[in-house]
Amino acid sequence: MTNQKEETIRLEYPEEACTGSYQVIRLNEYHFLLRCNDPFIEALSYGTVIQAEVHASEKNTYVFKRIVEQSTYTSEVIFLPSQLNETELHAVGNLIEEAGGFWEVWFGGMACVNLPIGSHLNLSEALNDRITKKKNYL
Question: Which of 22, 64, 75, 107 has the fewest CB atoms below 10 angstroms from its CB?
């Protein structure tokens, strides 16, 4: 799947009566692999395969139909520690990516972290280690 092109689609989620933009990889005409998380709809998380159809009256919008395949990633929302700057947070993000995961910042002070099921990365420990090292350096 690494050679497949990521694209952005507009997706209506009728159960919540909302529409949003999602990064996806199109698997076929009706199936999409989500490459992002929805902060308000837990079912729409990174790595989930969904079925969606073109909206009847809005041709540039899809309508969510069902989940085809659950994500093989865990999902955790964390508050970003104010003691760490952007560069230090990116270092933790690199650890997440090296573990095969994905992370994205929401609303400036929160992050959603997705790690493969069975990952041994301890996110709290990684953040606390950076905070401790910074305190000891100062």
Answer: 107
